[in-house]
UniProtKB/TrEMBL annotation:
It holds the Pfam family Claudin_2. It comes from Fundulus heteroclitus. The chain crosses the membrane at residues 7-28, 140-163, 170-193, 213-236. It is found in: Membrane. Keywords: Membrane, Transmembrane, Transmembrane helix. GO terms for cellular component: membrane. The lineage of its organism: Eukaryota, Metazoa, Chordata, Craniata, Vertebrata. The keyword Transmembrane helix applies. InterPro entries: CLDN1 (IPR042356), PMP22/EMP/MP20/Claudin (IPR004031). It is a multi-pass membrane protein. This is Claudin domain containing 1a. It comes from the Eukaryota.
Length: 252
C-alpha cells in the first residue's frame, strides 16, 4: 500500500518529467536557438552578393565560414540540427519594396556534426580548434543522452508499476537528475560555442544576435527534470524509512 503523500509526489514527478521531455524534444527539433537580425537588403551590388551567399548556403558544400556569413547577413537562425535564413521569394530579390519573407532551412547531417572546427573558420590550414569542436559535438550528443536517460527511467518505472514496487524509485530519480544535468550542459556548451564563434568570426556592422525560444525551452527542461528527480528521491527515501520503521515495530 502506497501512502497518499508518496502517490501524489510520484504523479507530480511524472507530469514534470513529461513536460521536460516534451520541451527538450521540441527544442532539439527546432532551429530557434540563436537568431541574427540583419539590415534590409538595399542596392544591386548588395543584392547580388547576398543572393550568391544564399545559393552557396542552399546548394554548396558544408563550410562553417560560408554558412556563418550567410546567417549573419540574412537574418539567420541556427539550432542543434538546423540552420535557416530569412529571404524574399526569388522574384523579389531585386525589388526595394518590402516583400513577404520566406524561411529557408538546411539540416546538419550526422557527418557534418562531427566535422572539426578550425581556429579560423573556413581555413583548414589554421589548425583544428579542439575546444569548439568538442563543444559542438557535446551540444548535440548531450540532449540525446538526456532523452535516452528519461526513456530508460520510464521503462524502469513502467516495470515497477507492474510489480507494484517503489524500490526502483530512487534509481529513477537519479536518472532524472542526470537527464537534467545533461540538458543544462547542452545549453552551456551551445552558449560557449556561439561565444567562441563570435570571437573568431566578427559580426558585420548593424547585425545583432539574440537567444531564441528553442534554447529557453531546453533551459526550462533542466530544472523540471531536477524537480522530478527531487520528488522521486524524496518518495523513495521516505517510503524506505517508513517501511523499516514498520518492520521494526512488528518485530518488537
Amino acid at each position: 500500500m502506497v501512502d497518499n503523500r508518496y502517490a501524489t509526489a510520484l504523479v507530480i514527478a511524472c507530469v514534470l518529467s513529461i513536460l521536460a521531455t516534451v520541451y527538450l524534444s521540441v527544442a532539439i527539433g527546432t532551429q530557434h536557438w540563436y537568431q541574427y537580425s540583419s539590415p534590409t537588403v538595399r542596392g544591386e551590388a548588395n543584392v547580388s552578393e547576398l543572393r550568391s551567399l544564399y545559393d552557396e548556403f542552399m546548394s554548396g558544400e558544408f563550410d562553417e565560414k560560408t554558412y556563418s556569413d550567410t546567417l549573419f547577413r540574412l537574418n539567420g537562425t541556427v539550432g542543434l540540427w538546423w540552420r535557416c535564413v530569412l529571404v524574399p521569394p526569388s522574384a523579389h530579390w531585386n525589388k526595394e519594396a518590402d516583400a513577404k519573407m520566406v524561411l529557408e532551412c538546411r539540416h546538419f547531417t550526422l557527418p557534418e556534426q562531427f566535422t572539426p572546427k578550425y581556429k579560423e573558420p573556413g581555413n583548414h590550414n589554421s589548425g583544428e580548434d579542439m575546444l569548439r569542436t568538442y563543444l559542438w559535438r557535446c551540444q548535440f550528443l548531450l540532449p540525446l543522452a538526456s532523452l535516452g536517460l528519461v526513456v530508460l527511467a520510464g521503462l524502469i518505472g513502467f516495470c515497477a508499476c507492474l510489480c507494484r514496487s517503489l524500490t526502483p524509485t530512487l534509481g529513477i530519480g537519479v536518472l532524472h537528475l542526470l537527464a537534467g544535468l545533461c540538458s543544462l550542459a547542452t545549453v552551456c556548451c551551445y552558449l560557449a560555442g556561439m561565444d567562441l564563434l563570435h570571437r573568431v568570426s566578427m559580426l558585420p556592422d548593424k547585425v545583432d544576435g539574440s537567444l531564441g525560444w528553442s534554447l529557453y525551452l531546453a533551459l526550462i527542461s533542466s530544472p523540471l527534470h531536477m524537480m522530478a528527480a527531487a520528488l522521486l528521491v524524496w518518495a523513495a527515501r521516505s517510503h524506505s524509512q517508513n517501511y523499516y520503521r514498520m518492520t521494526a515495530y512488528r518485530v518488537a
